[in-house]
Design a protein that fits this description.
The structure is a single chain. The protein is an all-alpha fold. Helices cover about 60% and strands about 0% of the residues.
Length: about 400
């Protein structure tokens, strides 16, 4: 009997590391300019453009790297990569909030600031195998995201409202991988035309925002983009009741978001860049950047200078610099115990009985099932790691 050939190591595709880092940079920049965008018309333009697609963009990337095949390893990663870090950072934020407000508080079912995405992503990974059994899973999640807005009793417990409205983008990413949609883009020799079109898309959206800043404020458009409220809770809507057509507004926003995501995917460099290696560190950036921005935002340091000519360029540069700083190796080494805690002590070792097809199966049935599943799956061409890393 010959020895089995060693498994080929998974290789990272520069394109997706580039996409993850750029998406995370948009998250940090968006949070950095948010305080001044409330009062500065010029800052409102990049703010609304970024918020129109940046987290759904990350949802698409996350879905692309998620499997619909349930298993102990998959669920173990949900615990180790998402739920444990969530509890760690939620505890830290509870301590900070208690010190600042003077009132002890710890409510892990209501995520602090950006931590909602970890809970949402954990839920997505658990429900994806169920959704994958449906016909047209993307259509059903879109309908659910639209209908859920009519129910104002769906609150922020476990970020349910936000998660449900983000789910279609996660499923879209999974569909892109399942249907191998991106292969055509990777194999394309000329990218000039699509990239010119993508730049034009962003320019048009930016121009629409820039021409009507007062209208977007009156419509409370930023609350629509947060994905965290029922229609009745949006300020300019709740006072006048909820009309039947608000679902079509949500659908229109989702359409614009999808177009912007497509444009962003076209603009992502396909080759290695100076930030490609940092694409593996996006979880560090996501969890740590809020500590850097908390004090300027909490005490209105940025809002006090919102109308200064240098406010927007300074915050844009600061957001980029923070992203780069938190991508560096010293930061990752110093904080790995928090961001990527070792949870092997928490996990139960798999027993031989876990390999059984079902409880009570006869030995012959188990043997037949083992033979049927013995053929190794082909190694993926990209790392199936957490898309937020």
């Amino acid at each position: 009997m010959t020895d089995a050939a060693p498994a080929k190591p998974k290789r990272r595709v520069p394109y997706w590391d580039n996409a993850k880092w750029l998406a995370m940079m948009l998250v940090v920049v968006g949070h950095t300019i948010q305080p001044i965008a409330l009062d500065n018309d010029l800052a409102l333009v990049p703010y609304l453009v970024i918020y129109a697609f940046h987290m759904p963009f990350f949802g698409v990337i996350s879905g692309y790297f998620t499997t619909d095949k349930p298993g102990a390893k998959q669920y173990g990663r949900v615990i180790g990569d998402l739920l444990v870090p969530y509890l760690i950072f939620e505890t830290i934020w509870s301590v900070i909030d208690s010190l600042v407000t003077g009132t002890p508080s710890f409510n892990p079912v209501t995520p602090s600031w950006t931590l909602w995405f970890l809970l949402a992503l954990a839920g997505f990974r658990v429900v994806l195998p169920v959704l994958a059994r449906l016909r047209w899973p993307l259509l059903w999640t879109v309908l659910l995201a639209i209908v859920i807005g009519y129910f104002d009793d769906v609150d922020q417990t476990f970020s349910m409202m936000r998660a449900i409205q983000m789910l279609p983008f996660f499923v879209l990413g999974w569909e892109l991988r399942r249907r191998d949609v991106m292969r055509g883009w990777f194999d394309r020799s000329s990218v000039v035309g699509p990239r010119v079109a993508a730049v034009a898309v962003f320019a048009i959206v930016a121009a629409v925002v820039a021409l009507l800043p007062d209208l977007w404020r009156e419509l409370a458009i930023r609350h629509w983009l947060f994905l965290d409220r029922a229609y009745a809770e949006v300020p300019e809507i709740g006072d006048g009741g909820v009309a039947w057509y608000y679902g079509t507004v949500r659908l229109a926003i989702m359409a614009v978001t999808t177009i912007l995501i497509a444009a962003a995917l076209v603009l992502v460099p396909r080759r290695r860049t100076f930030f490609t290696a940092w694409g593996a560190a996006t979880m560090f950036i996501y969890l740590l950047h809020t500590f850097v921005l908390y004090w300027p935002r909490e005490f209105d340091w940025l809002r006090d200078v919102a109308n200064e000519w240098w406010a927007l360029p300074a915050t844009l540069v600061a957001g980029f610099a923070i992203t780069v700083l938190l991508s560096t190796k010293p930061v990752r080494v110093a904080t790995r115990w928090l961001v990527e805690p070792n949870v092997r002590w928490l996990m139960r070792r798999r027993d031989k009985d876990d390999e059984a097809t079902r409880t009570g199966a006869m030995p012959t049935q188990r043997a037949a099932a083992s033979e049927a599943t013995a053929a190794p799956a082909s190694a993926p061409t990209v790392t199936d790691g957490d898309a937020a890393r």
